[in-house]
Amino acid sequence: MMIVALYSYYMPFVTTFHMPLFIFLSGLVTNFETLQVRRRMKVLIPFIIIGLTYTFVKGMGVRDFILSESKLGYWYLLVLTYFYIVLWLIRKIKINFWIGIIVAEFFFWVIFHIAPNFSQHVLCFTKAIFLWPFFIIGVIVKRYDLIHKLLSNSWIAALSIMIYLFLYVVRLPMSGWVLPLSMICFLVVLFHKIDAITWISIEFKKMVSLIGRNTLQIYTLHYFLLNLLANYELGDFLIVNNMRWIELFLSPIVAFLLAILCIVLSRCLYKLHLGIIFGR
Q1: Chain segment 140-184, per-residue pLDDT in tens
Q2: 8 Å CB contact between 266 and 222
Q3: 71 with 78: CB under 8 angstroms?
Q4: What's the mean pLDDT when you consider all of the chain?
Q5: Rg of the Cα trace of the chain?
Q6: 9-15: long-range contacts at Cβ-Cβ below 8 A with a sequence spacing of 24 or more?
Q7: What would the pLDDT profile of 118-129 be if each residue is shown by its tens digit?
Q8: How far apart are CA 107 and CA 113, in angstroms?
Q9: Do 4 and 159 form a contact (C-beta atoms < 8 A)?
Q10: Could you count the other beta carbons within 10 Å of the beta carbon of residue 72?
């Protein structure tokens, strides 16, 4: 699905959960009690440096980057920074954790209604409004060690996938939040089950772990590679010729190869003493 330029048959499915899943995982690796906000805010460095570099590569300018709601794909780092600051403030002012996370969502809503255009296109607050619940669920799961409880109650995963399938067909109010959350519950259990399979090679698991440790580098560099790949119009060819099954199996392979290539490129940048662009 990452290799296409035209409409993909699988995009409606993927887009129901992929960004909530990513932001949930960001929350899952965030420790509320030990969060160092200055360190986490370093994600603004690649947001600015790499984001603007990609903007220039696309033939656009600083104004286009600032006024673009998507920030050409780099909005995620800006929104993630908001979430880190909010968590830090909740701990710093010693407000009740549960009240704090509700106030934060309310704050995003208020700012959006006061200045809708500015908050949407410049600040990306509409994305923050939608994704804050998933981020904070990740934080809560980690804080209260709920993963083990989820794994010990497999019926939750079964119920989650049934809810997802139902809401995917019958869109109801609040489906926008329930739909991805149900898939996240299912995938968390699924990934743990896969990780426990003994016949999966250690080398493959190490490779997956390597990707997990380099998500920032992959995220910030993959747009450049996708831009190059788009020139070959591989995705368009598959879609125009209705090769859905080939697209289904080829997309994960291409995505995996792109991830590895991003890691290789990032290591080259580190060797050139340019690792600062990743904020690390």
Answers
A1: 999 998 988 888 888 888 999 999 999 998 888 778 899 999 999
A2: no
A3: yes
A4: 89
A5: 20
A6: 9/239, 9/244, 9/247, 10/244, 10/247, 10/248, 10/251, 13/168
A7: 999 999 999 999
A8: 10
A9: no
A10: 16
Residue 4, pLDDT > 70, answer: no
Q: State residue 91's pLDDT score.
A: 94
The three-class DSSP label of residue 35 is coil
The amino acid sitting at 225 is L
Give CA–CA dist 51/74, Å, rounded.
6
Burial of 134 (0-12, 13-18, 19+ CB in 10 A): buried
Q: In this structure, which amino acid lies at residue 66?
A: I
79-93: b (≥16 Cβ within 10 Å) or e: bbbbbbbbbbebbee
CA nearest to 239, candidates 11, 2, 4, 13: 4
- CB neighbours of 3 closer than 8 A, spacing ≥ 6? 226, 229, 234, 235, 238, 247, 250, 251, 254, 255
Residue type at 30 in one-letter notation: T
Which residue is listed with tokens 């995705």? 235
Long-range contacts of 223-229 (CB under 8 A, 24+ apart): 223/54, 223/72, 223/73, 223/74, 224/54, 224/57, 225/258, 225/261, 225/262, 226/2, 226/3, 226/258, 227/54, 227/57, 227/58, 229/3, 229/254, 229/258
131-140 pLDDT, tens per residue?
999 999 999 9
Let me know: does 84 contact 279? Beta carbons within 8 Å. Answer: no
